[in-house]
């Protein structure tokens, strides 16, 4: 969509703003906002959280303190922004009275339409400039104080034009957000369909005309007459990986940790390396092709991935390794991520303790629905194609989603800096 430009522009003298309409004025932030620095208690003023999605009530399970006036007062219409760069983008106009942690800067709008300030100070250009004027030792621990913030330059039209720009952006961003929500829902539905297709394939097979029998498992129901229910220990041999890794290197043997396992795939993010000579002689952590690595502890407990040729010879970290026998490895790997195993068995086991955990004894007792070997191959190949097709569709929607989000960002930036005329 093309938007009209203003009739004439001038140089703002501010790098991050650039040219502005000739009737706009450049003002110091400190002349537009007053700092609200009153300390209060969350016993008197409800605790609010400053997030990338704005200012919201703090979760009930968040830690509270009785140390007196330990927070900053926020009133409806204030703009609040986190001062730390590792919370970049956490800001917004508050629609509530309450209190926020002392690390935030609370601003009371004086010579600016509050809703316009929200759009202006949530735009990427402002956010980058805000942290640029701060100070710190490293980039992810940068802090911007009000003393630095108040020296920032802002370009503003008159109040009436601010209101018109705000009305335009409120309407347009609402429409864009609806489009984003629709695409996110499409992705969710595709993922749901994938799970349904996989669940049906691994519990009922690909032929809907075969005779069925009761599986004895509530989460499965009927299964084909020639299928069996077999414990995991009769399908794979389980061993533990390396345990706590030795000294870490910049190169050497790759070590696969829980963070490298993502729903059936091994990913490179945060990959560590070790010296093969540091591996204890009494451990067998080396991964072979078609083995399955299963996360045994932490937030990723129960996640698993089939070892491909690319990662054969790598080292399993703290997690478990299953070597399939009497079954097709890819089928077993797929089954471990299916609903009736992952959600109805593994997740129930991992929730028995405060810290999610799964051990070899528990893994060995999993009840697996097993078809004849020739059907295992057919089912695994079928699911691989389904995942590829749905994955391609999701990838396309994600690309569209990114373009919509980029359009929203550009639209806001251009409107609040006068690059387009919308009022």
Automatic annotation (TrEMBL):
Example GO molecular function: endonuclease activity
Protein's UniProt name: Restriction endonuclease subunit S
GO biological process, alphabetically ordered: DNA restriction-modification system
Alphabetized UniProt keyword annotations: DNA-binding, Endonuclease, Hydrolase, Nuclease, Restriction system
Upper lineage: Bacteria, Pseudomonadati, Pseudomonadota, Gammaproteobacteria, Moraxellales
Entries under InterPro entries matching the protein: Restrct_endonuc_typeI_TRD (IPR000055), Restrct_endonuc_typeI_TRD_sf (IPR044946), Type-I_RS_S_subunit (IPR052021)
Entry-linked PANTHER family: TYPE I RESTRICTION ENZYME MJAVIII SPECIFICITY SUBUNIT, TYPE-1 RESTRICTION ENZYME ECOKI SPECIFICITY PROTEIN
Broadest EC class assigned to this enzyme: hydrolase
Family of the protein in this entry: Belongs to the type-I restriction system S methylase family.
Enzyme nomenclature, EC number: 3.1.21.-
A Pfam family recorded for this sequence: Methylase_S
